[in-house]
Amino acid sequence: VSEQKVRGAIFDDLSTLHRERRAHFGTSAFLLAAIVGAMVAGTLRSDLLAQPIPALVAQISLWGLGFVVLPAIGVGLWFPGRGSSIALVASTIALVWVATLWPAHGTVEPAGLEPRCLMAVGVVGAIALAATMLSGAFSQCHRPSTKRWLAGGIATLSLVATVWMCSAPGVVHMLTSHIGAALGVALVAVLIGSRARRAHRHA
Amino acid sequence: MSVSRASDGLHALMQRYVDGDRQAFAELHDRIEPRLRAFLTSRFGGASVVEDLLQVTMLKAHLARARFRPQEPDDPDSGVMAWYFAIARNAARDHLRRQHRSARRFELGTDDAMRVEAQSTAPDIEALLSETEAERAIIEDVQAAIAQLPPTQREVVELHKLEGMSMAEIAERLKIREGAVRVRAHRAYRALAALLTRKPKPGGVS
User: Fold this and answer.
1) Nearest to A81 among B5, B20, B58 (CB)
2) Which of A136, A158, B129, B145 could form an SS bridge with A125, CB 3.0 to 4.6 Å?
3) From B12, which residue of chain A is nearest by alpha-carbon distance?
4) φ, ψ for residue B80 (rounded to 5)?
């Protein structure tokens, strides 16, 4: 009987932690979605629905990954195994390819590096990073992979938001101004996340 | 939500448990429990005492899980077992102390209540649950008081009390004289005493 009682008490404690995290980070994600949604809605590309269906589906999936799935792993709401984690990362990379490079393949290159796109990625990335920092997400879990999952979410979000604002085609443009910039955002997020975790440990 | 992974090591399970994974806790419990039971049985034999000490160990480990640090970086799975064994050893030692005290009171006293106490020395889980709640409240109070200290004093308290470093080691780590460390520690503990005695206790009892 006592084993059941203690096991139950520990399960209840972990469930409470899970509920509290879900409520806390759900609110943060909702606020972030409202801000980024308003930004994107104001400058939505005119040919959004004219894109190939697989690209559109991949972009919608990336919204889900950036807003829900990757942050949920980062803040300890979902604990995928090693195989699932690898599959998730591979899927995200494939989705990025389908969402950005596949529709751009074969188009004439009117633009390479585009400062406006770089700025869009940077601004959305900065907003998402600020929301992540202020919500305390970086210091929520002890695993070293936390910051990488959160950085992945932030980068995915900034990338797909920019893809929905910019209709300029071209593989080089996508590689430099969208994907390259998003990777830069991810790198900055990892560095800031590491600092935030160190500061939290010493606080 | 989590996925069951039979191949995960104890350390990986422990990390996920510390981060709040219920499934990881269940798996870890199932894998650690038989070894802890064997360890406690070899010392106490009595099934009910062993069972209670096992649950005390699990509960104490749960409350202390955020402080888990593997002591053996080359073999983190052994580090997890060593950590649980250390908690079990402490629980067993506390139990023996209580048993000894009760037996001593029985020898000296004549009251019937003392006889009853001496006959029933196994730790009471209900009492422990409320005790651990009270302990958690005290830990939170102390953490809040430490957070109010100036950074230089807080650093010394954390290194001394939480990481168990000596004054000389702290001086070496912070690259200051040992005397300066002692002064900071003295001021910090005086400030902590003032902060903690000023705080009213629950129920208004001071």
Assistant:
1) B5
2) A158
3) A143
4) -65, -45
